[in-house]
Amino acid sequence: MHTDKGATLKVVIVGGGTAGWMCAAGLARLLDPKAYDLTLIESDEIGTVGVGEATLPHIKTYNDMLGIDEAQFLRETQGSIKLGIEFRDWNRPGDRYIHPFGTFGEPWNGVDFQHHWVRARNAGREVAPLQAYSYAVAACRANAFEFPNQDDKSIRSTYAYAYHFDAGLYAGFLRRWATARGVTRIEGLVSDIARDTAGGQVRSLTLKSGAVIPGDLFIDCTGFRSLLLAGQMDVAWQDWGHWLPCDRALAVPCATGGDGLTPYTRASADLGGWRWRIPLQHRTGNGYVFSSAFLDEDQARETLLAKLDGPALDEPRLLRFKAGRRVRGWSGNVVAMGLSSGFLEPLESTSIFLIQAAVIDLVNLMPTPGEGDRMDPRLVAEFNRLFEIQYDRVRDFLILHYRANSRVGEPLWDHVRTMAIPDSLAAKLLLFERRAALPNYQYGLFSRDSWLSVLEGQGLVPRAYDRLAESLTLDDLEARLADLKARIDGNVATMTNHADFLARYAPGDLGGPVQAVRAVS
Questions:
Q1: Mean per-residue pLDDT of the chain
Q2: What is the pLDDT of residue 47?
Q3: In angstroms, how far is CA 347 from the centroid of its own chain?
Q4: Global pTM exceeds 0.90
Q5: Cα separation of 318 and 47, whole Å?
Q6: What is the spatial distance between Cα 224 and Cα 20, in angstroms, rounded to a whole number?
Q7: 83-159+248-320+422-521 has the same fold as 9-53+166-238+325-392
């Protein structure tokens, strides 16, 4: 196909918030500004969901790619460090484990660590709980943080980190960053959409002001409304409510208290759902995700407020949602990101990652300026293939948390423990039970160690292991396990307290909140 080297492809992002501005910032950084004209339309009249404050380590990679100064970012978003997620009461009331952003143990003789651990445990040897062999878990328990060591041979290189931050402040931060680098922001409400009569592609948007905004590629970041992908392209919704029945969330900030500025998110199972706790420098974010079929809103609100660490700073805000995704993320010349493309509850902090992944995939498959009106169907098909993989693999991981519970006698938890599950998840559970085998994705979430943390943390222990683990004698294995634990404990004992680290590195811009948090905690 002939390409006009002087042509420009006009990209119009509809909607701001985290999705819109992450997309705008990523495209501004990765695309040639001479070839791609970037415009974002948003209205201050439309609120954003904006409760997502916890992330995965991929967000650091994204920020680094943009060239964002980490300390400045943490200051301006009141951010803190996240080394993992603590799950309380998910197996039985009183149980707790951490899904760490790091490895469990070390591979010995070419065999993954869990096989050695299962072998020693099954043989009745001196072996600590699995969580004791994760550096990130130990750092979480110590409320400590320092940057990972860049030397791969160091035990201090075996973890990564993410952030907690104020989502509204993050969107504002990216808005300033992106507009300073050429993204045109237009304030306005979309009142009409013009499409081709033949191909059905979107050609322009008319704003309430009367302004007409033409475009070649439109990115739908309009939230649950999905104004373009669903509203215009008529892309159907794939409902996963039968696997993930939670359909409500109450969110409320509170003053910092309780355990203070922990370097991890907390997810506590409760009646009809679960509660989150996300510590920021200036406050703590809290929420209750629940199923309206098993818990009414008034009871959820009462429970949430009763279990806050400190005084509520606002009235709880109710959000209604459905778990699932669009059957396609790209149709015609419309690509959806964020809530416009799908929603999975924030149990594993995946919402921002899914936006980030969609931005990177779009950049790699972006139409070339000068190709005319046609969107290459092969590029569209590949984007949709990757889109499905991302959502479906996260879906299975979330369902696992519900399926592997022992909260007998509670209606929601009895239901999800006995419900039919996707074949893809059933196969993973069988392989782990029979041979301690774990998913090892080259693309998509989650890592082997993530699966291991939840499977073992909720009481699923394999019957057998990889026979190659028997290349070590049991005495040698026991000695290695003891040495590994000693190295982790010794190194973590010298780490800096998380609040002290932030006070030195990136105190929040609202005026010394880290010190105040230390005083409360």
A1: 93
A2: 57
A3: 8
A4: yes
A5: 13
A6: 13
A7: yes
**Geometric angle at alpha carbon 311, from 74 and 412, rounded to 5°:** 90
Please say whether the beta carbons of 108 and 116 come within 8 A: yes
Q: Is 60 a catalytic residue?
A: no
> Residue 212 has what DSSP assignment?
E
Question: H helices within 99-161, ranges in order?
Answer: 113-122, 135-141
Convert the pLDDT of each residue in 374-387 to its tens digit. 689 999 999 999 99
Superfamily of domain 9-53+166-238+325-392, CATH level 4: FAD/NAD(P)-binding domain (3.50.50.60)
Q: Which of 259, 177, 277, 315 is nearest to 499 (CA)?
A: 259
The CATH label, of 3.40.50.2300, 3.50.50.60, 3.40.50.1820, 2.160.10.10, for the domain at 83-159+248-320+422-521 is 3.50.50.60
Q: Which residues contact 329 (CB under 8 A, 6 or more apart)?
A: 229, 335, 336, 337, 341, 342, 358, 383, 384, 387
**The two three-digit tokens of residue 388, written as one number:** 């499905």
For the chain, domain boundaries: 9-53+166-238+325-392, 83-159+248-320+422-521
The number of helix segments (H) and strand segments (E) in the chain equals 15, 21
Q: What residues does 14 pair with on adjacent strands?
A: 41, 220
The owner of tokens 């059957």 is 327
Best CA proximity match to 472, nearest among 459, 460, 454, 484 = 484
Distance between CA atoms of 274 and 290, rounded to whole angstroms? 6
| Tens of pLDDT, residues 75-101 | 999 999 999 999 999 998 999 999 999
Torsion of CA 71, 75, 79, 83, to 10 degrees: 20
The encoded tokens of residue 12 equal: 């119009």
Distant-in-sequence, close-in-space partners of 9: CB < 8 Å, separation ≥ 6: 35, 36, 37, 216, 217, 366, 367, 368, 369, 370
Beta bridge partners of 516: none
**Residue 496 confidence (pLDDT):** 97
How far is C-alpha 62 from the chain's CA centre?
A: 13
Instruction: Say if strands 9-14 and 36-42 run parallel, antiparallel, or are unpaired.
Output: parallel
- What residue has token string 């499905």? 388
Q: Identify whether 446 is preceded by a cis peptide bond (ω within 30 of 0).
A: yes
Residue 48, pLDDT > 60, answer no
Q: What is the 3-state secondary structure (H, E, C) of 387-445?
A: HHHHHHHHHHHHHHHHHCCCCCCCHHHHHHHHCCCCHHHHHHHHHHHHHCCCCCCCCCC
188 close to 43: Cβ distance less than 8 angstroms: yes
Are 11 and 219 contacting, i.e. CB atoms less than 8 angstroms apart? yes
Q: What is the pLDDT of residues 355-376, one digit of tens each?
A: 999 999 999 999 999 765 568 9
Contacts for 69 with CB less than 8 Å, ≥ 6 apart: none
Active-site choice (60, 82, 153, 322): 82
461-512: per-residue pLDDT in tens?
A: 899 999 999 999 999 999 999 999 999 999 999 999 999 999 999 998 754 4
